[in-house]
Specification:
Length: about 130
């Protein structure tokens, strides 16, 4: 499966962005999807994950730093996952990557993912 992340940009603190992760090559419905980010000089870190975009009862996961501000979701018909980011802070500035896996557990760990998108830049100004 090929992943294309988009939706990044420059936004003021307190603003919102919605990132998209479009899949091609295979249906996304059988995959778990995660979002990770990497700021300059820092390691890649987990942001959020969903166990399936095709099931309303799918499990969702968030890092403590984004919980209650970010929401992960998906549209099975569009083969796309989303990350709605609200109340953005300057510390959210990073390149955001989406990733996909057939695993159902360990979705908080980058090593669990087999497919990665190219990343989209999010910059939050103070």
């Amino acid at each position: 499966v090929q992943l294309q992340a988009s939706g990044g940009g420059l936004v003021q603190a307190g603003g919102s962005l919605r990132l998209s992760c479009a899949a091609s090559g295979r249906t996304f419905s059988t995959y778990g999807v995660g979002w990770f980010r990497q700021a300059p000089g820092k390691e890649r870190e987990f942001v959020s994950a969903i166990s399936s975009i095709s099931w309303s009862g799918a499990r969702t996961y968030y890092s403590d730093s984004v919980k209650d501000r970010f929401t992960i979701s998906g549209d099975n018909a569009k083969n796309t996952a989303y990350l709605q980011m609200n109340s953005l802070k300057p510390e959210d500035t990073a390149v955001y990557y989406c990733a996909a896996t057939l695993r159902r557990y360990g979705l908080e760990y980058a090593a669990s993912y087999d497919y990665w998108g190219q990343g989209t830049q999010v910059t939050v100004s103070s």
